[in-house]
Write a structure and sequence with these properties.
Layout lengths: L3 H9 L5 E5 L3 E5 L9 E6 L4 E5 L1 H7 L10 H10 L8 E5 L2 H9 L6 E3 L5 H9 L3 H7 L7 E6 L5 E9 L5 E8 L8 H15 L3 E7 L3 H9 L3 E8 L7
Parallel strand pairs: 2-4, 9-10
Antiparallel strand pairs: 1-2, 3-4, 3-11, 5-10, 5-11, 6-7, 7-8, 8-9
Amino acid sequence: MFSPVIESFWQSQFLAETTVFDSERLSVHINPALEEARRLVLLERAGGKLMVALKPAVAQQIGLLPQAGDLTPESVRLMLDEAGIALHGADHVFHFSDDSLAALLSEPQAAHIRALSAADEKEFAEFQSQASEQDLDDAWVELDHWAVFGAFDAKCKLMCAASMYPWDGAQIADIGVLTLPAFRGQGQAWRVVRAICRHAAQAGYQTQYRCQLDNAASIALARTAGLSLYGNWDVIAQDAEI
């Protein structure tokens, strides 16, 4: 069971005056209030139901009307394909369940993990210099984010870091994590993730952990850190034309 904050945030995208279709497998909502960059949103819940929200212009382009008749997840995806509407590419979205969050809050923090600040700029710059450009882009861990935590070795070298920033104005903090290659496989990442997530929870924020569907290592990290899959989230591609 997930926090009401999480449920309310995700469900808010699918609250609309016009519900085109609703069944056990699929719900489709026309929502004029969606941001232009997210004028088409899909959320496939871990239980299997696909939820779709789209602005009227997108609904019109694919021929989706309030009288659309019987629909399935497969038929809606086919309509998008036939209309030439590309998607950004789905992410797994993980959150802590209520029970997992309670366990997180009750555990002590490892002594070699702590919050980072501007005073750690030199150590953080050295840390980033040893990571590949691809790893830096994928993780997006920055010292000036809302919260930053790191794990240090016996020589005070930064081995792993995670940072968070508030997501879409909600009480949800999106997380990125990066471990230097030399320190992978030691369990540093999941310990740092739990430390920063505990900090976020104590500040009133729910953690959001996102990764691509084919990123097996990141999926394993999320589960080891105690997070549970909420669903798969996708939006319209940035360069899609409507």
